[in-house]
Amino acid sequence: MSQTSQTRDALKFAYWVPNVSGGLVVSTIEQRTDWSLEYNQRLAQTAERAGFEYALSQIRFTAGYGAEYQHESVSFSQALLQSTTRLKVLAAILPGPWHPAVVAKQIATIDHISNGRIAINVVSGWFKGEFTAIGEPWLEHDERYRRSNEFIRALKGIWTEDNFTFKGDFYRFNNYTLSPKPVQKPHPEIFQGGSSRAARDNAASVSDWYFTNGNTPENLKAQIDDIRAKAAQNNHQVRIGVNAFVIARDTEEEAKAVLDDIIRHAHVEAVHAFGDAVKEAGKASPEGEGNWAKSTFEDLVQYNDGFRTNLIGTPQQIAERIVELKSIGGDLVLTGFLHFIEEVEYFGQKVLPLVRELEAQREKQAA
Ligand SMILES: Cc1cc2nc3c(=O)[nH]c(=O)nc-3n(C[C@H](O)[C@H](O)[C@H](O)COP(=O)(O)O)c2cc1C
User: Fold this and answer.
1) Mutate which of 19, 123, 197, 292 to test ligand 1's pocket (most atoms within 8 Å of Cβ)?
2) 4: three-class secondary structure by DSSP
3) CATH number reported for the structural domain that contains residue 165 in this entry
4) Interatomic CA distance for residues 47 and 87, integer angstroms
5) Cα(21) to centroid of ligand 1, in Å?
6) Nearest to 188 by CA among 87, 120, 93
7) Which residue range(s) make up the domain with 165?
8) Does residue 67 line the site of ligand 1, with CB under 6 A?
9) Which of 216, 238, 247, 281 is the most exposed place for a label (fewest CB within 10 A)?
10) Ligand 1, atom 11: nearest CA belongs to which residue?
11) Ramachandran area for residue 345 (φ above 0: left; ψ -120 to 50: alpha; else beta)
12) 291 Cβ below 6 A of ligand 1
């Protein structure tokens, strides 16, 4: 897993699984994307053929600012694994509703059924209304991350040790042995997102992967450098996935026109309501920074700031910007699209080959 600037692994690509309705942008523009199982199975098969290695499912327990219907992330991930052969699927997990013993058991079983292709994304929660609706206590910002930290340490312990004992503030295990253990060693990969201090500190100490929201290369570099420096102090390795909403078209004008159209048709009320709800994220942290703390109205139309990364243009422009993300320390690009199946196909045909060419050129130059 360790990488020097000379010998970097090839960039990996993931896509957002549209397992909630309404697509990836809060806009009334047509989105030829569907939350159904049938559409998602075809999408997963298209994506693995196109060269994507990971698919990221989402967890929402209730509607809010779009996403009127939501399929549950673990069972949906399992269904996608059944219809693919190489793709790794990340099941989103929300500590609070999920207990680590349940997750450890569920994911170990899915790991066996899928021959080692399940991973998880531990999300710490921003949607207070969702917790209230299901009667789950809502913790203060940093307490949510302290719980996620224990959650991840507990999972790793259960997945790797027999007679696991753990005395935390949130979770306790007494001489617990999980059988069978997962197929993947040491354990299925653990991803985590958020950009507050607490989120970064978790990434720098317990997570295998850290997901950013979309951002400019400059801001992403600052975030990545910060996490890598802290991880080094902890003697911990963490890899970085960068979020981006991709609009790849044959000409730059076409791509920009699509973005303009998305923004022009933004569902204004829903975007403002989302903007209010996410004040429980980064803004509610002690330092007042983190995800969505500085997002503009336009940023929020793609609910993970995906326009900010600017993968909007021709295949050549996008490939160059993707390789730039690698040069600032990114290991994976997490992509969202307007019309998922057709655009994942286009991305695989037009953008990915250029990325691989540019990566090879850079490797040569570095050597
Ligand atoms: C790539 C990515 C995927 C996420 N997926 C979900 C999700 O499915 N459900 C959810 O409730 N939160 C999700 N989140 C939200 C985060 O877990 C976290 O609550 C939020 O980013 C707040 O971060 P901060 O306050 O640490 O800056 C996701 C975040 C990122 C970056």
Assistant:
1) 123
2) coil
3) 3.20.20.30
4) 8
5) 18
6) 120
7) 3-366
8) no
9) 216
10) 125
11) alpha
12) yes
Query: pLDDT 10s digit of each residue in the chain, 367 long?
Result: 444 445 689 999 999 999 999 999 999 999 999 999 999 999 999 999 999 999 999 999 999 888 999 999 999 999 999 999 999 999 999 999 999 999 999 999 999 999 999 999 999 999 999 999 999 999 999 999 999 999 999 999 999 999 999 999 999 999 999 999 999 999 999 999 999 999 999 999 999 999 999 999 999 999 999 999 999 999 999 999 999 999 999 999 999 999 999 999 999 999 998 888 888 888 888 888 888 888 999 999 998 999 999 999 999 999 999 999 999 999 999 999 999 999 999 999 999 999 999 999 999 998 8
Query: Is the CB of 148 inside a 6 Å radius of any atom of ligand 1?
Result: no
Cβ-contact 264, 60 below 8 angstroms = no
Tokens 């013993």 sit at which residue? 101
pTM of structure: 0.96
Instruction: Write the DSSP string, 259-287.
Output: HHHHHHTB-HHHHHHHHHHGGGSGGGSTT
CA distances from 113 to 37, 78, 147, 169 (A): 19, 9, 29, 33
Cα–ligand 1 centroid distance for 199 (angstroms): 10
Q: How many domains does the chain have?
A: 1
Alpha-carbon span 221 to 348, nearest angstrom:
26
Contact 196, 289 (CB under 8 A): yes
Of all protein residues, the one whose alpha carbon is nearest to atom 5 of ligand 1 is 58
Best CA proximity match to 213, nearest among 144, 299, 283, 140: 299
Contact 114, 78 (CB under 8 A): yes
